Amino acid sequence: MPVATPVYCQVAKPDQPALPLSELKADSAPDDTIRAYAATVAILKGAVRERDLAIEGCAAPVNAQDPAPQGGGATPSGAATDVKMSPTNSDGKRYQGTGRASESAAVANGAVGLLRKSPHPARNVIRPAVEEAKRTAHNVSSMRTEVGVELRPCAAAAESPIGPSPGRHDFRKSAERKSRRPPSPRL
Amino acid sequence: MGASIGRQNAAVADLKARADAEVNAMAASETAAHREAAAALDQAQQQAQALSDAPIDPNAGCAGAIRWGNAQAAELSSW
């Protein structure tokens, strides 16, 4: 029984680069200080480029905007083809299972709901096929199917809680700490 | 009923084929982007190293350091 699962981009969190500014001391020489500032700016700019490029990697593939079916497969209008359903998944056993048509319809309904909420561009491509499967399943009163579909869900996205990451800077705490500090001497 | 099952099978197979193609395309795109991102940061690290090694006359004091910093600002402040 196929279970369509939204696929999210799995972008690793970039490492926070070491900044030369952190090596400065109160008695650092002016030339060392200005070098550290300049090098820090260069590293921060690189970190921004790194982040932007990683985000660009999550952009929709070019062909994801075209939901029209390719030749050889079923069409959203329901035309049958000679594609055979395999009893087992060829490249993975996740979501493999068996079920009756009514269960298939329920799962397809859930899959369509998931896909509607999914921001992933693949939803435009696979939604027609899922809806076709749902329509067909409704039309069949009793049958038994076996199929496994691997849509490779993003475990990280599913498991990561919504909210601030543990490593995020807490500006409120910083402000509180700052307010407790003694005033710096005026030069 | 056989035709309906056939249609469903075809729909499922088509769904899987297209989803697999999308996943593969996304994986390739992510890998390429990851490479480019790492290269960008590496380039920045090299630039930072060059700046850290740049010669500044230590006898020029603060004024000399600021002059050197201002000379770098045009490049550092642009994207």
How would you describe this structure to a colleague?
The complex is a heterodimer of chains A (187) and B (79). With 187 residues, chain A is mainly alpha-helical. Chain A has one domain (1-72, 87-160). Chain A has helices at residues 30-56, 101-117, 122-139, 155-159, 171-180, and strands at 97-100, 144-147. A two-stranded antiparallel sheet of chain A has the order 1-2. The longest helix of chain A is centred in the N-terminal third of the chain and has 27 residues, at 30-56. The N and C termini of chain A lie far apart (74 Å). The mean pLDDT of chain B is 89. Chain B has helices at 2-52, 61-76. Chain B has one domain. With 79 residues, chain B is an all-alpha fold. Classes of the chains: A mainly alpha (187), B mainly alpha (79). The interface between A and B is large, with 75 and 59 residues.
**Strand residue content of chain B:** under 5%
Major sheet attributes of chain B: none
Number of H- or I-type helical stretches of chain A: 5
Q: Mean pLDDT across all residues of chain B, rounded?
A: 89
What separation lies between the terminal Cα atoms of chain A?
Answer: 74 Å
Largest sheet of chain A: 2 strands, antiparallel
| Quaternary organization | heterodimer
Keywords, separated by commas or semicolons:
heterodimer; A: 187 residues; mainly alpha; two-stranded antiparallel ribbon; elongated; disordered C terminus; B: mainly alpha; 2 helices; 0% strand
Question: How is the secondary structure organized here?
Answer:
The complex is a heterodimer of chains A (187) and B (79).
Chain A: H1 30-56, E1 97-100, H2 101-117, H3 122-139, E2 144-147, H4 155-159, H5 171-180
Antiparallel strand pairs in A: 1-2
Chain B: H1 2-52, H2 61-76
